[in-house]
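INPUT
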Amino acid sequence: MFVMSSPSGAGKTTLSRRLLADDPQITLSVSATTRPPRAGEVDGRDYFFVSQTRFQAMVHGHELLEYATVFDNRYGTPRAPVEAALAAGRDVLFDIDWQGTQQLQQTDAASDLVRIFILPPNLAELERRLIARNTDHAEVIAARMARACDEIRHWGEYDYVLLNEDVETCLAELKAILLAERLRRRRQLGLADFVRAMLGEAV
Amino acid sequence: MFVMSSPSGAGKTTLSRRLLADDPQITLSVSATTRPPRAGEVDGRDYFFVSQTRFQAMVHGHELLEYATVFDNRYGTPRAPVEAALAAGRDVLFDIDWQGTQQLQQTDAASDLVRIFILPPNLAELERRLIARNTDHAEVIAARMARACDEIRHWGEYDYVLLNEDVETCLAELKAILLAERLRRRRQLGLADFVRAMLGEAV
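OUTPUT
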């Protein structure tokens, strides 16, 4: 379970799309949200777009692994697709904020969690990216900048911190982290049997 | 502090040489030993070749971070070069066995230790490599095989386990582990100041 968090505008969406395209072993956890779709966003790919009523039902039905409210919109991680992917031996990528990360950290899955924080090189660059996105008004951008700073203040709660100055470098670093974490002894479940067989002992 | 252990003949020496050649940030910790040099081995590069008396003096003078006896020969890690390299902000690679790894694990440096175990694909391949080395007699090879099995039984004490079926793949995995470990939040010492400066707070 790989968690990627970052302030909005730090390049996380580009990084996660590239990672998913290059790495067949990983599945994106698609969040549910009550906010309306932006131009180009596809239901079921970018988010599951749901009503407030449906979201509330998911909360009450324990259908969400974590959920949080941001700017009056609600965001949550549907539990079933994550559990199905993990059961099939796949890795799951979570594109969630510090609130969601803290909640996942409090579940049984905490020991399996790898938490990665993406920092922008500076706040000017981050603001430039938010403006270039061109979907938001000035006061919305100011509010998003304040929220970005709030997100950044939680960098200390993550296992890895990457500085996204260059997307190719940052992507290579992400891939190195994924590969390394997969090579951890405790994640290689067949290893004990493999070694016993090699040593000619009873499996 | 990166520790690489493996049974003799699993390709560790090739891997560490390639790694050192490709990665300017890492320094090899050269062990001291009382065993005589093999053909082609250079004092100060492959080992510091020392007498039993000198080795014993190093032990008594607390000049060794760890030491062990293998086949009547003594091996140890001189403390001073390691401390100098770490103080200069360099990473240090230790090519030591499970006994040395256990001792490093009991020092103050344990929290900084990254322990990597290299497995051969199978024992036949390992024996083939030992024979191909062509420096040892049959009974010596048998003793080395027994010792290799003993080493392999300690795989469970390592953070990462790599299977060396193909040296290029294994080298890429090693590099990924090094890069990932360097990206760990707690190893990026300037990060707190960097983030404070970014957020415009007092450094």
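end of record. The beta strands of chain A are 2-5, 26-29, 32-33, 48-49, 64-70, 73-78, 91-95, 114-119, 160-163.
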